[in-house]
Amino acid sequence: MTFTSLTRSNRTVAAVSSTPLPQGEEKAVAVRRMFDAIAPRYDLVNGVMTFGLDTRWRRRSVGALGLAKGSVVLDLAAGTGDFCRLLDDVGYVPVAVDFSAGMLDAARTGAPLVQADILRLPVADGGADGATCGFALRNLVDLGAFFVELARAVRPGGRIALLEVAVPPNLLLRRGHAVYFGHVVPRIGGLLSDPAAYRYLPRSVAYLPEPDRLVAMLVESGFADASRVLLSGGISQLLVATRDRKA
Ligand SMILES: C[S@@+](CC[C@H](N)C(=O)[O-])C[C@H]1O[C@@H](n2cnc3c(N)ncnc32)[C@H](O)[C@@H]1O
């Protein structure tokens, strides 16, 4: 086992070693426990380590949906509900879905909270007008299966906006970002929250496919116009797409 669970003061904390990252069910269990453990301070650490940029990125993602007011938008891997609040602000009807009870307990949103695995959504075919997903793609056990499930749950013509961390294409920025993300963020996270979880964060980027492959996977799943935009010099990426009208 490379990603072990330690019980500490009634909380389960995920501990990460420098050995290979977990896969399959082992990864799903470890990720859920990790978010249960860091939930109480998740928003604080997020805001500090991104200097508040995370809110700007989410706002941009919501703006990219371009749906009619009143549209039902699933916020997948909703965490503490940051996306839901922004979706609500612009007149959408958000529904938060996450498998971590801890994160949902800490959620600050009036949206309905659904505890479920986003690889198996409790939603009828085409039941949603759109979906958002923030910083969760790299945490999934099977990204291809997630995109297929997304295509099933979002109606034809519906829109998706998926936000994720990224590696900047510019060499200088990439080097600076590697130092910040790889060394400073784990220190900040370690001081304010759980050290193991924030050591895992930079390592988990390795789960992400190459950018072209990421877009191709969306196209193959039923989002023919999928595109990728880099945010803040490429430290973050936004994938935007429309569900094909013909299956
Ligand atoms: C980094 S947090 C992001 C939370 C929120 N979307 C945001 O923008 O801050 C990742 C979230 O993904 C959730 N998650 C990871 N894998 C999941 C899965 N298979 N099903 C449901 N939720 C999942 C975790 O519980 C956690 O709340």
Q: Which strand order spans the largest sheet, edge to edge or round the barrel?
A: 5-4-3-6-7-9-8
Poorly predicted ranges? 1-17
- Helices and strands, in order, run as EEHHHEHEHEEHEHHHEE
Tell me the strand percentage band.
15-25%
End-to-end distance: 41 Å
Q: Which distinct ligands sit in these coordinates?
A: S-adenosylmethionine
Helix-and-strand structural type:
alpha/beta
Fraction of residues in H or I helices: 40-55%
Please, what is the average pLDDT? 90
Largest sheet: 7 strands, mixed
**Strand count:** 9
Helix count?
9
Shape: globular
Q: What's the alpha carbon Rg, rounded to whole Å?
A: 17 Å
Architecture overview:
The protein has 247 residues and is of the alpha/beta class. It has nine helices and nine strands. The chain has a seven-stranded mixed beta sheet with strand order 5-4-3-6-7-9-8, with helices on both faces. A two-stranded antiparallel sheet has the order 1-2. Helix 2 (42-50) runs antiparallel to helix 7 (171-192), helix 3 crosses helix 4 and helix 7 (171-192) runs antiparallel to helix 8 (195-203). It is globular. Residues 1-17 have low confidence and may be disordered. The site of S-adenosylmethionine has 20 residues, from helix 1 and helix 4.
